[in-house]
């Protein structure tokens, strides 16, 4: 999470961690970072954040989910582990996501991807036990698709209104273009 905070601060955002539901009323957007999505849902429920966060997202709170954050923003899951306990998400993005689609930690990789709306060179993406988008509904827009290797043809970055989600970890690259896009989505009323 600290990498996301640093990236957001470097592009001008007043970024801080959120730990309580009452803090949600004072923010203009939220980043849902990578991690273990099953644990994140469980902890959000235990700390009373799950339903308030879901409600804020439903009423338009901008969100940027990376890796596990993409899983949390997905409306549907595909191929989740049996007995994992992850039968729900926060939702908001009209996609079906497959958890750990690229394999285990040892299958992590890096690849350059072209992202619609991000000018300049391809984005160097870092995939760690990453999901991929199995299917995209009509309300979501694909921003990037893998061209080669395992997962070729699958979407790895999507947007729906003020919600942005990536399969990869942009916070680990030093490239803040996606964080700038997200900040623009907040400051330009979703059009950035």
Furnish the topology, listing elements before pairings:
Elements: H1 2-10, E1 30-32, H2 37-46, H3 50-58, E2 63-66, H4 68-73, E3 74-78, E4 93-98, E5 109-113, E6 123-127, E7 132-136, E8 141-145, E9 155-160, E10 163-166, H5 177-187
Parallel strand pairs: 1-2, 2-10, 3-4
Antiparallel strand pairs: 4-7, 5-6, 8-9, 9-10
Quick summary:
The protein has helices at residues 2-10, 37-46, 50-58, 68-73, 177-187, and strands spanning 30-32, 63-66, 74-78, 93-98, 109-113, 123-127, 132-136, 141-145, 155-160, 163-166. With 192 residues, the protein is α/β, with parallel strands linked by helices. The protein has one domain: 3-Layer(aba) Sandwich (Rossmann fold).
Q: Spell the H/E element sequence.
A: HEHHEHEEEEEEEEH
**CATH top level?**
Alpha Beta
Number of domains: 1
CATH architecture: 3-Layer(aba) Sandwich
Distance, first to last CA? 23 Å
Structural class: alpha/beta
Number of strand segments = 10
Q: Which fold name corresponds to the CATH topology?
A: Rossmann fold
Q: What's the name of the CATH homologous superfamily?
A: Class I glutamine amidotransferase (GATase) domain
Rounded mean pLDDT score: 90
The share of residues in helices is 10-25%
Annotation field: number of helices: 5
Strand content: 25-35%
Alpha-carbon Rg, integer:
15 Å
What low-confidence regions span 5 or more consecutive residues with pLDDT below 50?
A: none
Structural overview:
The protein is of the alpha/beta class and 192 residues long. It has one domain: Rossmann fold (3-Layer(aba) Sandwich), CATH 3.40.50.880. 23% of the residues lie in helices and 25% in strands. The chain contains five helices and ten strands; from the N terminus they run H-E-H-H-E-H-E-E-E-E-E-E-E-E-H. A five-stranded mixed sheet has the order 1-2-10-9-8. Strands 3-4-7 form a three-stranded mixed sheet. A two-stranded antiparallel ribbon has the order 5-6. The model has no long low-confidence stretch (mean pLDDT 90).
């Amino acid at each position: 999470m600290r990498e996301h905070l640093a990236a957001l601060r470097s592009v001008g955002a007043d970024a801080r961690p959120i730990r309580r539901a009452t803090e949600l009323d004072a923010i203009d957007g939220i980043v849902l970072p990578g991690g273990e999505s099953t644990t994140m849902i469980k902890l959000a429920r235990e700390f009373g954040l799950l339903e308030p966060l879901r409600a804020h997202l439903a009423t338009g709170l901008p969100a940027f989910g990376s890796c596990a954050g993409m899983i949390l923003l997905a409306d549907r899951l595909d191929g989740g582990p049996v007995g994992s306990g992850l039968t729900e998400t926060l939702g908001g993005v009209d996609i079906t996501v497959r958890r750990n689609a690229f394999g285990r930690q040892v299958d992590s990789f890096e690849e350059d991807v072209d992202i619609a709306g991000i000018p300049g060179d391809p984005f160097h993406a870092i995939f760690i036990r990453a999901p991929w988008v199995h299917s995209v509904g009509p309300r979501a827009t694909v921003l990037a698709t893998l061209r080669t290797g395992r997962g070729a043809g699958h979407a790895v970055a999507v947007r729906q209104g003020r919600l942005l989600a990536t399969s990869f970890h942009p916070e680990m690259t030093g490239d803040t273009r996606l964080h700038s896009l997200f900040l623009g989505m907040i400051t330009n009323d979703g059009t950035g």
